[in-house]
Amino acid sequence: MKMFGRTILVLLLLWKQDSVRSVRLVELRVPTHEPEGGMALLGCQYDMEGDTLYSVKWYKDGREFYRFVPKNEPPVYYFETPGVNVDVARSSNTVVALMNLTQESAGHYRCEVSGEAPHFTTVFRQKYINIHLLPKGGPRVMGLREHYRLDETVLANCSLPPSRPKAHLKWLVNDRPAPSEYVLGPWYRVSTDRPDAAETILQLSFYATTADFVNGAVKLKCQATIAPLYQRETESTHYIAFPFTITEPPDAEEIKDHAASVQDSLAALLIPIIFLILV
Q: With contact defined as beta carbons under 8 Å apart, do 214 and 238 qualify?
């Protein structure tokens, strides 16, 4: 019985020792969205909890591209991988710097941390990076004029240079979303230079009325969004062209002179009539 108790105690102590020396991955910092041509910092924070670090490895879509082994000299290894360009000078056991991101850079990135022998306890975690092709410039509006007559059609197209993914365009009239009946589209036109990207077009069409032209003016705005990396807008103000001009009312002196002139005209007309009656 005593032997059985000692055996249980030894097993418990060994289990406790192993549990204390269990590698723990504290935080994985991998951006979810990055632009083409940019850079990304991949962070992997871990706690050895009494164990000794054997290696930190990074994988993209299951393929190893970076390894840090503190006992080796040099400790850093970089394996060429399509879409993965590592800035070794800025990388370490906890950070990997990627540069010159391309469409091929998108994928699952996994950090794997291992403890030393004899257990080589390993923990890992992964996240996905989306790579966006952002448009060169902001939204462009064509077809608008500065002045419109009442009941004339206001017609304009808002377009955004090619992007990936497709952009979300939105028209606003006096800082409020344009009614659905005012909007046509969107339409997409594939880029000849980048078949993976498309230009986005959204049309605005409505009749010029006093409901939209408040105090004779309307403010139109086109917003372009590619969340969460891009948001631009263009804004312009347009006016009602009145077909007539309002003249200033005559002043009191003009009215007085006009009344005197009317009285003189009546007197000149009545005097001959009275003379004929008396004769």
A: no
Same domain, 175 and 127: no
How many structural domains are present in the chain?
2
Looking at 48-57, 123-132, 242-251, 269-278, which range is the least confident one? 269-278
**Could you say which DSSP state residue 143 is in?**
S
For residue range 122-164, what is the model confidence (pLDDT) as tens digits?
999 999 999 999 999 999 999 999 999 999 999 999 999 999 9
d(CA 275, CA 269): 11
Within a domain: 12:
no
Distance (Å, whole) CA 264 – CA 267: 5
Whole-number pLDDT of residue 50: 87
Query: Both 36 and 123 in a single domain?
Result: yes
CATH number of the domain enclosing 205: 2.60.40.10
Alpha-carbon dihedral sign for residues 243, 248, 254, 259: positive
Nearest to 37 by CA among 164, 131, 160: 131
Domain ranges, residue 152: 140-240
Question: Could you tell me if 115 and 121 are in contact, meaning their C-beta atoms sit under 8 angstroms apart?
Answer: yes
